[in-house]
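Entry 12.
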Amino acid sequence: MILFSPELTGDWEKYKKFQCQSCDVGLWKIIAGRQLEIPEAEALLTERAVGPLEGFRSKAGRPFAARLKLNDDYEVQFDFGDGADAGTAEAPDFSGQEPLGHCPKCGGRVFELPAAYVCERAVGPAKTCDFRSGRIILQRPIERVQMQKLLASGKTDLLAFVSARTRRPFAAYLVRQPDGKIGFEFEAKAGAKGRGARATRGETALRVLGPHPKDKQPVELHAGRYGPYVKHGGINATLPDKDRIDAVTLGEAVALLAAKTGKTRSARPNKVGKQAAKSAHRKRAA
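Predicted 3D structure (tokens):
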């Protein structure tokens, strides 16, 4: 495929870089451990920004999400949507947005940016607050309604996350701490006794991958006791490679579910066939 920029000429694509053939401008294909797909590179070149994208990893190995943007020198930079580069930049215009609630640190209004929820006083050159909470935390998208609950009551619903250290799923609440920061609160051990309590842990999806092409019902990614799995209606299919929990696509999930459905259907006739064969054998013996 040919990548094209209105401001640059030349065919793009080399082994490790998307490289312009007419100048020395290029984009690395692997950025912070994540491969940049061709449609994403095209969007970055034409729109000068793309995302937020998931699947990046810090030097410490922790996953994170961020937008990518091109500066005036065609260098790729991370944009976390928190005004981190706002020493000279203007504050975002929140006039068309409805605030989610009051900032737990300063009482200002909290708004939504592409990669984070931020206090209106925490962006721009004259910022006086530092409240910011990512829209994706440990591979779990934090929905707008959950942030509204957190700001209003100090606590979200029970949510499913994936540990950055062990890559194992766990359930916790996001809570407002006394200093205004956001932290985790885990279920009391007494409430986790019994099979019924363990079963409820997987009810909250890590994320919705998209609608199933057949019935448009959601295909969800869940964190199970024995590893991650995808779910559509009453069908569950285990993810063969748990390390792909942050990269599995809707197409892959649909294929896994179809394979699981096929195995279930093919197993039933075999069982019926065996019973019929046994009955026929008994009649001949009689």
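Annotation: DSSP finds four helices and 20 strands in the chain. The CA atoms of residues 26 and 97 lie 36 Å apart.
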